[in-house]
Amino acid sequence: MRIVICASEMVPFAKTGGLADVIGALPHALEELGHEVVVFIPKYKEVSQCGVKLRRLNGRIFYAGVGKNIKVYFPAHDAYFNRDGLYQEKGVDYPDNLERFCYYSRRVLEQLKEINFCADIIHAHDWQAGLIPLYLKTVYKDDPFYKKIKTLLTIHNLGYQGLFPKEEFPKLGLPSSLFTPQALEFYGRINILKGSIVFSDIINTVSPTYSREIRSKEFGYGLEGVLGNRKEDLFGILNGIDYSIWNPETDKFILKNYSAEGIAGKKGNKEGLRKICKLKLSKDVPLFGMVSRLAGHKGFDLLIGAMEEILKMDIEMVILGLGDKKYETALRHIAGKQPKKICVNFKFDDPLAHKIYAAADIFLMPSHYEPCGLSQMISLRYGTIPLVFKTGGLADTINKENGFIFEHYTKEALLKAISDSIEAFKMKKKWDALVLKAMQYDFSWKEAARRYTLLYEKACNRK
């Protein structure tokens, strides 16, 4: 099968979040299954600085090779993409984002024809690539080259929809008849993701539970009705993680490598991180780790509200993340009062993230909603036991056999789960057995790629 993957970021070329990791790994897993894969991401300034050599085709099409024979193409437009940020600067979205990703979507389709890649399916990710299904079924519908191409839309987080003023609609180059509640109109504004949901052949989210949750008013962000109309075409496929990167046996960032056959090295990582973070309570208490964007839906309102009671318990905590300044201010204040028990780091620091996964005993993810989540899968691989709220991908990956769960989103339920995990940590033989069991779980991309292949086939079999 000939597959085109379209997204706004991809490691190792450009990254702001987990989407880049997904796009960096999925093409390789699909290639291993025998598919022919090409990828398209914009040619950001970051792409030119990533250290991977770009080549030119016909003097005007930029591309790079990854995997065995995967080509990554970079639609270029310096005025749109040669900027310091991918989507925003200093926390403010670029005002011309609609034009930027409109250009990207059109250019993807044009370049497919220029390189003569006759695709079976285009796999578009999130709203930034969401215009591609619309263009295929409108602007390009009479061109024989595109006639048989089917589309799959993957929604990584329904909270990001691509909303723009209705006055910008002419910039899309689409018929004005599409600015209706049945297509792109959303309470008087343009909604790119909504239009993509309507026009894509198949839709999926990044976990089975999240695919059901987003059809509810609580998690639907106003699109629950549209998604309900497409429920027969809506599926959930759990993301995987790249074990060539996340592997305590080979991880170059951690202080001591270890494996399920010899977990003693994990204790060395814990002691090393405690020294780095200047934690001085006791090596015999559980170390809680957290690597997260500082955002409300990641559970920081709940966590900060419970922190006074949490820090009365016998624990230590290390938090790494960037995001909302109000959470940074609150956490900085808390850490200032208890510097021997909690260390906070407000930055992007990949090596430190690896150290936290390897060193922590318990990994904290109190997210109010979590479409998939990768951190809980990574922490299992490092023998770090997740403590999560039962939602989305967290509900699909963590249970009482491999972690700690609270099912009611309240401070009391969170405190009870933390207390239970502390008591479990004290039972050393059972805890070591839990650590070993956690490290046996396999969330590699192989199974996800197989499931995506089935969705591609389902889409391609439609008339």
Question: Secondary-structure map with pairings?
Answer:
Blueprint: E1 2-6, H1 18-32, E2 36-40, H2 45-48, E3 55-57, E4 61-66, E5 70-73, H3 78-81, E6 88-89, E7 92-93, H4 97-114, E8 121-125, H5 131-137, E9 150-155, E10 163-165, E11 185-186, E12 189-191, H6 192-199, E13 202-205, H7 208-213, H8 224-229, E14 234-236, H9 264-276, E15 287-291, H10 300-310, E16 316-320, H11 325-337, E17 342-345, H12 350-359, E18 362-365, H13 375-381, E19 385-389, H14 392-397, E20 404-406, H15 411-426, H16 428-438, H17 445-460
Parallel strand pairs: 1-2, 1-8, 2-5, 8-9, 9-13, 13-14, 15-16, 15-18, 16-17, 18-19, 19-20
Antiparallel strand pairs: 3-4, 4-5, 6-7, 10-12, 11-12
Helix pairs in contact: 1-17, 4-5, 5-6, 9-12, 10-11, 10-15
What does this structure look like?
- With 463 residues, this protein is an alpha/beta fold.
- 37% of the residues lie in helices and 17% in strands.
- It contains 17 helices and 20 strands.
- It has helices at 18-32, 45-48, 78-81, 97-114, 131-137, 192-199, 208-213, 224-229, 264-276, 300-310, 325-337, 350-359, 375-381, 392-397, 411-426, 428-438, 445-460, and strands at residues 2-6, 36-40, 55-57, 61-66, 70-73, 88-89, 92-93, 121-125, 150-155, 163-165, 185-186, 189-191, 202-205, 234-236, 287-291, 316-320, 342-345, 362-365, 385-389, 404-406.
- β8, α5 (131-137) and β9 form a beta-alpha-beta unit.
- The model has no long low-confidence stretch (mean pLDDT 95).
